[in-house]
Amino acid sequence: MDVPDGPLIPPWYTIPGMSEHLKPGSVVFGYVIERLLGRGGMGTVYLARQQSLNRAVALKILHPHQLRNPAAVEDFLREARATARLNHQHLVTCHDAQADPDKQLYCYSMEYIPGLTVAATMQAEGPMKRSMALHITYQIASALGYAHQHSLVHRDVKPDNIMVNKNGVAKLLDLGLVRDRLDGVGSTSAGKKLMIVGTPEFSAPEQSRNPRLATPASDVYSLGATLYYMLSGRPPHTGETIIDLIVRAATEQVYFPESIPVDCRDLLLLMLARSPDERLPHGAAVVAALEALAQGRAPKLPEKRLQTETSPAEDMVEDEPAGSGASQRRRVRRVRRHR
After folding, report:
1. pLDDT beyond 80 at 274
2. Which of 49, 107, 120, 243 has its CA 20 to 30 A from that of 93?
3. Rounded to whole angstroms, how far apart are CA atoms 286 and 302?
4. The pTM is what?
5. Smallest Cα–Cα separation from 230: which of 154, 319, 120?
6. Hey, which residues does 179 pair with through a beta bridge?
7. Nearest 5°: CA angle at 180, between 92 and 154?
8. How many degrees, rounded to 5, is the angle at CA 9 between CA 3 and CA 10?
9. Catalytically active residues, by annotation
10. pLDDT band, residue 68 (cuts 50/70/90)
């Protein structure tokens, strides 16, 4: 079936045995489709040209089968809003969002970044040099620090979601699983089903147990797992099944192959700690740790985090000054002393 020119939507067509996709030349809300870039759980991403400005964009269109689930539609729109809410040099920029419920079409456009994902680069070239891996980590940590400052948690930092252009500039993609920490809820389409949000090989133990427990420290773990992958060519934990993988990440120490430099191991220990309380707490802390590493100093947890660890409460007996005509009393005050 041919797809008519112009915004006569929906322009989906199907070839037997293949998933729905758009023909090159199809026009969607003023965007001319050029070619397929990739597919995800929620939508398909195309290289398209915005007619009004004559510029290349990445156009993400919600999968037709998701239209049967109103919550999935809301999740898609939430992703677009989250992307548009942030403006950082290492985060992909959202240009525009369009929705036509009558024609069952939802999409949003983003800046097009010519380059390769970290995953694609690793598949082609193998493990990265220390300098390149740390450079990418620094850029993505700064992007996460910005998102965390705006109360957003990405929840799916991984090699497939980091794009690097020919000049070495890295950008964090795909805010489809982003969660506002102030909302107290995860994806609206999750319902009460048992779900794994994120990618198990790169997800923090607490996020694998319960996606709603994800915090900025969970993103730090995922970035640490990505750094481990860039340096070694494999994630920090593997397993024959997803459950096996999750259990190992929650119970086993990280093993460092010889390909991971010794100074990077100290950083990775702070990023891949099983407990979020023993982990670098957010993207800005990772940036600070990387700067310390570059200056030849050992990375460490922020002082504020160390000071919040307290010993059990101790009883302290004090004399309470007596008032006029009153006998002196003694009171017990419970105090906490820092370790």
Report:
1. yes
2. 120
3. 10
4. 0.76
5. 120
6. 153
7. 40
8. 80
9. 156
10. confident
